[in-house]
Amino acid sequence: METLLLWLFYISSLYAFIPGLITRIFGFRVFRRGISKEYFSLTFDDGPDPQYTPELLDLLKRYDAKATFFVVGSNAERHPELLKRMHEEGHLIGIHNYVHKTNWLMGPAEVKRQIQKTGKVILDATGVRTHFYRPPWGIVNLFDFAKRNETQIVLWSAIFSDWRVKIGADKLTKRMLKKLRGGEVFLLHDCGATLGANMTAPGEMLIALERVLEEARDRGLNSIRIDEMIRISEVSREGKKVKPSSSAQQADSKKKPISLFKKTIVALWMAWEKLFHLLFRLKTINPENPLMHFRVRSYRGQQVTMNDGSVLTSGDQVMELHFDNKLLFELGMKSKSPVQLAIKMVRRMEQEMPLIARYVADHAELARVKALYGVSMINRGPEKFGFTVTDLPKGLFSGSSRIYLKFLMRVIHPEGGSRLNQSPEMLIPKLILMPLEYLAEHYTENGSHRNISEKPNESKEEPVVITASL
């Protein structure tokens, strides 16, 4: 039960909560606000609706305003004539899934199917493909980020609860006027048939919108499509860039500042580690200079034959190792290259192995433990310290571990993102094991077991072991 609860918490956090938090707070990999003094963007969700969408199109036409419609595929399929009219009148059409269902409750394959099916409906009606996408309720999952080259996720900077009829046109008008300025992305609804909405709410929205469009005209503000807002914002950002001096370039080549996004990821990651340590009562091998933490638990898995010929079977006690995430991040940030990171990791492992052996020898309660255990990103490192390296059984644990380790590499590796793109096969989670008898025999007396066939600075791939706090 403990393991099940852990995995439910881990998967839900990684799959849904953390990506949602990042997009909402920092706008990571999504567009939600533009840079402009003269333009704002009107976006409409959940349609098309046979009653309100034609009225909305008439209103936009009167004020020569362009908008973006994120359509629900099942609605669009029933009213292709409205999609055709949107397109012919110069509006942009985006995807809002085939049914109005949150991405948190759907797997990656189902989300992809929803997007593709809605995209085909739009293509059949207009003859034009779209890659603009707004997930229902703006809720993203981890795999939505992976579709960055396929879709542009669009959120919003201003939302008004216009799906509730009790808000009324007057209050809605005040809310919208308060946000009426250049660069804003308004979220409104031209259909009230979705869960939690009122069927007649779009009628109130249309009354308020006409007032806002009138005020926008007086202020010299114009509504434009999201693709135009993105283009104008990108041009504005490029125009603001200042070419650094040669000395600044040299300094930047030595040390790159950590982005706000990365700082946030690291903070969330560290908070996760603290929570994990509390939940599973991890102990630290060397509190003064921590590299490894551990917990003792029963092994649950397939039978594994280790290097010394002993066999680990389900139910045997193992000492599960976890790297200190803070130290891992610091080593990565201070390393100028992947090879340098590899060398630092090897050096620390050389120092740590005798400490682990001494710790085990000094704690009688660990006598019942049969092996060291960990889950690792593998190249050529662990086996040279005496670990048995074997594949994880295919399944939920293996798949989730791979996702977590890719995320981990992007955070701590100096060239994490590009490295993964170049060599995605390197991040295959492996099971590493070492019998405690082997640990005692090889590390208790000599203090180092550096049986490495090639020197670290000659290695072309990182001989790094990174165990996940799973």
Structural Rg: 28 Å
Averaging pLDDT over every residue, what do you get?
78
Structural class: alpha/beta
Fraction of residues in helix: 40-55%
- Helical stretch tally: 16
Total domain count: 2
CATH architecture of the largest domain: Alpha-Beta Barrel
What name goes with the CATH superfamily of the largest domain?
Glycoside hydrolase/deacetylase
Highest-level CATH class of the largest domain? Alpha Beta
Show unreliable segments: 4-15, 241-256, 414-426, 446-470
Pfam families: Polysacc_deac_1, YkoP
Organism: Paenibacillus antibioticophila
Biased composition (Basic and acidic residues): 447-463
GO molecular function, one term: hydrolase activity, acting on carbon-nitrogen (but not peptide) bonds
What does this structure look like?
This protein has 470 residues and is of the alpha/beta class. It folds into 2 domains: 26-240, TIM Barrel (Alpha-Beta Barrel), CATH 3.20.20.370; 258-458, no CATH class. The protein has helices spanning 2-26, 52-62, 73-78, 80-88, 108-126, 142-146, 168-179, 201-219, 226-240, 246-254, 260-280, 325-334, 338-362, 396-412, 416-422, 436-443, and strands at 30-31, 39-45, 67-71, 92-95, 132-133, 152-154, 158-159, 185-189, 222-223, 283-284, 292-298, 304-305, 311-312, 317-323, 371-377, 388-391, 429-435. Strand 12 (304-305) and strand 13 form a beta hairpin. Helix 2 runs parallel beside helix 8 and helix 7 (168-179) runs parallel beside helix 8 (201-219). The longest helix has 25 residues, at 2-26. It is elongated. The relative contact order is 0.11. The model is unreliable at 4-15, 241-256, 414-426 and 446-470 (pLDDT under 50). One of its GO terms (molecular function) is hydrolase activity, acting on carbon-nitrogen (but not peptide) bonds. Residues 447-463 have a biased composition (Basic and acidic residues). It comes from Paenibacillus antibioticophila. Residues 447-470 are annotated as: Disordered.
